[in-house]
Structures are given as structure tokens and as C-alpha cells.
Design a protein that fits this description.
The protein has five helices and no strands. By secondary structure, the chain is an all-alpha fold. It is elongated, with a radius of gyration of 18 Å.
Length: 159
């Protein structure tokens, strides 16, 4: 378990677990697009399974990322090593945290509404359009959250 806190595989100052988290988050849009593609091909059970798994993994990854930044690594210590302005990184961390929370709230609401609509036999069908709109909104916030997380990773571990 101690190897998780050693220098990671991306060649930065980040620990191994942070490198794993950032790689997962950068692959997340591709995995979500594959899940959406499965829904457009009427493979709804695969779409449901993938969305549930991706949501769970993303929740774990974001909790581990924020826990690592605040508790394990200590933000002040990380910023002492970095060449980036402390205030800029701090404000980006706040934006990243807010976007991550918004992303998780939108994603869980989309999942819960989809589950209830499926029980009423309205998805796929009657509520497909609203589900698509909700999914697009969630996907845009996911992209914004990933971009801010990647920027923060760069500021803390690369710059």
C-alpha cells in the first residue's frame, strides 16, 4: 500500500494514486461517449451498467483526489514546491471543487430520474428527450470538471 504514495508513473511530482486518478479522469469522456454510443444502438442494459460504474468510479476518484490534496499532501506544502501563484491555485481548487460537486449532483440526479422513469416504462420512450438534455448538461459539467482538475494537477505537480 505504501507504493501508492511514491512518485507516480507519469514522471511528475505526483504520487502514484494521483497519476492513476488523472489518467482515469482524462479517459472518462471517451468512456462516457462509448456508453452513449451503446444507448444509441439500443443496448440500454450496457448503457445503464456503464453509467453506474463510471459514476461510482468517478465519485471514488474525486474523493481520493480531494482527500489527497487536503489531507495527505497538504495544499500549502504542495504550493511551496510549485512555481505557480498560491492564490491562483487556491481559486482554481475552489472552482474545481464546486464543479466536481455540481457534476456529481447532476449525474446522480440524471441516474435517479432514469431509474424512476424506467420503472414507469417511460424510458426509453416518453422521457427520452428530457433524459438526453439532462445527459448533455451533465456531460458538459463533467468536461469542465475534468479540465479544471487537470489544470490544477498541472499547477501543483508539474509547474
Amino acid at each position: 500500500m505504501e507504493y501508492l504514495f511514491n512518485i507516480g508513473f507519469l514522471g511528475t511530482r505526483a504520487p502514484y494514486y494521483m497519476d492513476g486518478i488523472i489518467v482515469y479522469l482524462l479517459l472518462l469522456p471517451i468512456l462516457i461517449l462509448f456508453s452513449i454510443f451503446s444507448a444509441t444502438n439500443r443496448q440500454y442494459s450496457l448503457h445503464r451498467f456503464m453509467q453506474t460504474v463510471l459514476f461510482t468510479l468517478t465519485l471514488i476518484a474525486l474523493i481520493a483526489f480531494n482527500y489527497g490534496i487536503h489531507m495527505v499532501e497538504n495544499f500549502d506544502k504542495l504550493m511551496a514546491i510549485s512555481s505557480v501563484n498560491y492564490n491562483l491555485a487556491f481559486y482554481l481548487l475552489i472552482i474545481q471543487t464546486v464543479l466536481s460537486m455540481l457534476m456529481l449532483i447532476l449525474w446522480i440526479s440524471t441516474l435517479l430520474f432514469a431509474i424512476s422513469d424506467r420503472r414507469r416504462k417511460a424510458l426509453p420512450g416518453l422521457y427520452s428527450r428530457s433524459h438526453k438534455i439532462s445527459g448533455r448538461r451533465t456531460f458538459m459539467v463533467i468536461i469542465l470538471s475534468i479540465v479544471t482538475t487537470a489544470c490544477f494537477y498541472w499547477m501543483v505537480y508539474i509547474a
